[in-house]
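Input record (one chain):
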Amino acid sequence: MNLYLSPNGRIDQPTYWRGAITLFVVSTVLSVISAYVSPFLGVLGLIVIWPWIVLHVKRFHDADQTGWFTIGMVVLAIILSMVLGFILPGLFGVDTAAMSEQMARDLEDMASSNDPGAVLAATMDATKEMTRAQLLPNIVSTAIVTGVIGFVMSLFKSTSGANKFGPPSSEPPVDTFV
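The corresponding structure, as predicted from the sequence alone:
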């Protein structure tokens, strides 16, 4: 658990990949739960942000670099996610604009009924439908972003022996944030 919670210490490349794959699986499971239970549960995806940051900070520490380079990885991930968010839905036949227009029309019809419960239920159903339609493109996007970031992280080679961030990951970590 220390792998995901504390930014202290270092991790080697294989440990980084084990952590990245685990976090990818957790993110995918949360996406599926969000799509089939409630789109509002998607906010649970925020719980993996800190473990992703910690994983990258430790990997940079292993290369004797500052963990602040993680900001660059976050920016790269955001840009790549945005680009893929425009490209992938169309490749999977998801027309988000048409779905949004249909949802707006349906909600206008429901609003004329003066039944707030019906409007809320219709909104929830339409949101679930959109979330389900975008599930596969979102999972593929997350896999691509994870792979690209992992490739970039593999360009940073481990330093042999102890460095200013502590001993190699096979030894106990030193508290670098004291």
